[in-house]
Structures are given as C-alpha cells and as structure tokens.
Design brief:
In chain A, 48% of the residues lie in helices and 0% in strands. Chain A is mostly helical. The longest helix of chain A has 24 residues, at 8-31. Helices cover 23% and strands 19% of the residues of chain B. Classes of the chains: A mainly alpha (157), B alpha+beta (243).
Chain lengths: 157, 243
C-alpha cells in the first residue's frame, strides 16, 4: 500500500486523461452526424437531402399523359424529338395543378428565332433563317404550325 | 441509488450517443431507386449543338443558379484556317441568351456545351478538408451544403472550372447532374430542354442504355484526358482546339 500512495499523483494524471477522453467522445458523438462515413468520408444523409429537392421541369412523360393530341401532331413532324418544356418552359407546377396554373401562350416571333436564327457556328444540317429577311418580323405561326412546322397557310387558328 | 460524480462521468458519453440517435431521425430515401444499380454519365454531341442556350436557362431555373454563375454553359469556338492553334472562344453570359453574330467569317465555328464532368477520380472531392463534397455510389459528384465551409479549395482544384461559391450562401455549388431528378426517373433539366438531343443522360451500368452503341460506333473523347480525372461527360465530335 505504501507503493500505491507514492503513485497517487500518477492516478490523478490518469483521471485527467480519462476525463479528457470522455469529453472528446461526448463532443465527437455530438458534432459528427450519425450518417458520416456511411458510404465514404462524407455525410450519407446528404445524398437523400439532395435527391429530395423539388423539380421544376415535369418531364415530357407528364405532359404526354394529358396532351396526347399534341403528341400525335408532333410525332409526324420535325419537332418530334423536341420535348414540350424545351419551348414551354418548366411546368411541373402546371402538371401538379393543371387547372390552377395555366401556362401562358408563347409568342412565336421571339421563341422560334432562339433556335432557328442563322449563325455560322450552327451545324449545317440545322434549318436556319435570317429572320428579318425571312419574315420581316411577322410571327412564325403565321405560316408554320410550331408543333409540326411544315408550311401551312392556315396555321394561325 | 447514490449518484456519484464517477457515475455521472460514466453515463455522459452513453447519454450523448443515445441523444444523437434521437436527433438524427430517419434519412430520406427516394422510393424504388437503388444507388448501386447506376453509374451516371452524360453524352454531349457537338455536331448537334445549335447554341440556343436552352440548357443554360433550364439549369438556372431548375437549380436556382444565381445570376452570373453557371452550372452549365455553352462556349462558341472560332478556329481560323491558319494558324489553327489558338481558337477564339467566347461565351456571352454563358450562352444563356444565345449567341449574337461575332463578326468572325470563314474558319471553323462550333458550340461546346460544358458542365461538371462528374469525374470518377475527381480532384475536387480529394481536396475537400471536411468531407463536404463526394462521389455518390451511383457516380455523381455532389456537395453537402450543410458541411461546406466555403474554403474554395475545390473551386481551385477543378480543372474544368465547374464550381463556384454561391454569393448568398457562401458555399460551393456545382452541377448535381440533377440528382433530384434522375433519382426520380426523370432526365436532367438540360437534357429535357435540349431541342436537338445534343445532350443525353447515360447510365453506364445499364446494358440497354443507347450510350454503349453510340460509343462503339463513334469516335468519342472526354475533356483533358491527360489529367486522368475519369471524366464521365463524353463528347462526340470534339475538335482538337477544345480545352
């Protein structure tokens, strides 16, 4: 027992170490999220949080489930591969609430030239026009039906 | 029962661990989506890009990208007939509003859409000091905005210049390959909005994905292959001058 008494200062240091280690364990378990390291050196829950963000573009599948008439029209024409929201913009809200949120009608005078205005950097296969020479500012749907853009004199109905 | 100091000290760590479980709750998961069954990539066909800027606008709207910053952008290249080493590259407002004529005539002119390459061996994820950016098991490089310190290390590390610091949140942001869309069975916003199919989302783990036949029948390339980043944005028709 005499020896132990001499070692009392060592036991005190050991106690301080134990407290420090315990404190470290407490703080660590508090600050490091539970999912950290689930898949790698990062917070695993972050994947689910990012995946859960809301979408703005509904996707053409959502459009086609209601607008099958337009789909039929598009299928036959050159714009078959262009998805609805490429021109109409993000409409997930309209897909969720078709009656409440109604998309505005597009102005073909400004819409079509976004793609079809002539530019030397565009690939040659792509149909391009110099809009001023081509239509002198008339809206494109005077002659072309946007969903199937062949020349159609009765396009604007 | 006597509560001694000793007992309190022994119980504290256990209590802390238990409390952490209470706080964490259940992680959110997308239904019917198995992360181990996919390995996402993107195919960009330069021969189809018309520089309309639809992808840039769609990305900004889908992901609330701040004005003046880009998760995807389109560059216009003009390569002179001679010398062809130094192309003139411009990208007015990231190509968001299309490309006005730049007065260049002759030579070779084309558009190159750019975005995060979701590199399999990405430099940006390796330099993050806090584990805030990472590659998911399905091959998408993401940023944990709750963990990001905004130290900008990753912004400097990306050899493709695809990251920026959000001016309001002061954290790093970049293309997520629309992770919130592809896990729901949708394609990315840029692919959805591309009118010519110049962009195609591809799942390299899906044997029926058209990417496999495309890669087999075309000469494709990635950007900066000499850096061995394992870039997964595959370009068709990439010109030598593109960097």
């Amino acid at each position: 027992m005499k020896n132990l008494k001499d070692a009392e200062h060592l036991l005190r240091v050991a106690a301080v170490f134990l407290v420090a280690i315990a404190l470290f364990a407490i703080l660590r378990s508090h600050f490091v999220p539970r999912s950290f390291g689930e898949y790698g050196h990062y917070r695993g829950d972050a994947i689910g949080e990012i995946a859960a963000l809301p979408v703005s573009f509904a996707g053409h599948g959502a459009c086609e489930s209601c607008h099958s008439d337009i789909l039929e029209k598009k299928k036959a024409g050159k714009h078959a591969g262009v998805s609805c929201e490429a021109c109409h913009g993000p409409l997930a809200k309209h897909a969720d609430d078709p009656a409440g949120i109604v998309p505005t009608k597009l102005d073909t005078a400004v819409l079509c030239v976004k793609c079809h205005e002539a530019n030397p950097a565009k690939p040659l296969w792509f149909p391009q026009v110099a809009s001023q020479d081509h239509s002198a500012g008339l809206p494109c749907d005077t002659c072309h039906q946007p969903h199937s853009p062949v020349i159609d004199s009765g396009a604007k109905k | 029962m006597n509560i001694t100091r000793r007992k309190v000290l022994m119980l504290l760590p256990a209590a802390a661990v238990a409390w952490e479980y209470v706080l964490a709750g259940t992680p959110e998961a997308a239904p019917n989506y198995n992360r181990t069954q996919h390995w996402w990539a993107m195919l960009i066909d330069i021969t189809k890009c018309i520089g309309c800027g639809n992808c840039v606008r769609a990305c900004a709207e889908e992901n609330h990208v701040p004005e003046g910053y880009f998760r995807t952008w389109v560059e216009r290249y003009h390569v002179d007939d001679w010398p062809s080493e130094n192309p003139i590259v411009d990208s007015p407002d990231g190509g968001k509003h299309g490309f006005p004529p730049n007065g260049e005539s002759g030579g070779k002119n084309f558009f190159v859409p750019k975005m995060c390459n979701h590199c399999a061996d990405s430099p940006c994820t390796q330099v993050c000091p806090v584990g805030a950016t990472f590659m998911t098991p399905d091959g998408v490089v993401l940023i944990d905005q709750k963990y990001c310190l905004g130290c900008r290390y990753c912004v400097q590390a990306c050899p493709y210049g695809c990251r920026y610091i959000n001016p309001d949140k002061k954290v790093a942001e970049k293309c997520t390959l629309c992770y919130h869309r592809i896990t729901k069975g949708l394609t990315t916003a840029c692919c959805e909005a591309c009118p010519t199919g110049a962009r195609q989302l591809a799942d390299l783990k899906n044997p029926n994905d058209p990417i496999h036949e495309f890669v087999r029948t075309h000469s494709v390339q990635v950007l900066k292959p000499h850096l061995a980043t394992g870039a997964k944005v595959i370009y068709n028709g990439l010109d030598r001058s593109v960097r």
